[in-house]
Amino acid sequence: EEFAKEIAALAKSTDLEIAIVVGGGNLWRGLAGSNQGMDRATADYMGMLATVMNSLALQDALEQAGVDTRVQTAIEMQEIAEPYIRRRAIRHLEKKRIVIFGAGLGKPYFSTDTTAALRAAEIEADAILMAKKFADGVYDSDPKMNPNAVKFDELTYNDIITKELKVMDATSTTLCKDNNIPIIVFSIDIPGNITKAAKGEEIGTIVRGE
User: Which residues fall within 8 angstroms of residue 152, CB to CB, at 6 or more apart?
Assistant: First the structure.
């Protein structure tokens, strides 16, 4: 509800076109399921369904906050959401509707990060705002485990890959690099950060080309 209020206020006060990719880790993590012996594809499909549940919850909260919203899913379930169609998504954005992409890419073995990178490229997004819990940017090591961890203000795509930093997986990073899409990594735990990141204020860590 709090995230929805902030996103809705941003949509109403700016000309930004906003698309959202929602994870499902609060309900189910595919990788965790496969690590416990479950078939990886089955575990990943369950994770995709979890993202749809979160997408519908966010849609409801956004519409209660007064903004038009559409959920598009990579797996067809037309009774509850639209199937993902690129041109339709772009048209919704042009009409100032917030578009939420659910069900990942509809295929196992691809992360939600990859979904964000690919959808951003498809709709020609200016940037990816990667909201994180419990982290206010990218560090050289886990700040929860290492009190001397150093935070980066700026990184390149190659830094993410060569230093194996935990920002997004290699597939996602390469997609962003190939399409020159900046990534802003910031904390979602602090109220107002979504607005600051969207308005280009210096916050968190920015990842971009050389």
Answer: 137, 138, 139, 140, 159, 205
Give the DSSP H or E segment for 69: strand 69-73
**Sign of the torsion angle spanned by Cα atoms 28, 29, 33, 38:** positive
CA-based Rg of the chain, rounded to a whole angstrom? 17
Sign of CA dihedral 75, 76, 80, 81: positive
State CA 206 to chain mean position distance. 15
Please indicate, yes or no, whether the overall pTM of this predicted structure exceeds 0.90: yes
With a pLDDT cut of 90, the percent of the chain lying above it is 85
Is the pLDDT at 152 greater than 90? The verdict is yes
Enumerate the H helices of 17-147 as residue ranges: 30-35, 40-64, 86-94, 112-122
In three-state secondary structure terms, 101 is strand
Residue 47 to residue 24: CA distance in whole angstroms: 6
Residues 6 or more apart in contact with residue 176 via CB below 8 angstroms: 117, 120, 121, 128, 157, 168, 182, 183, 207
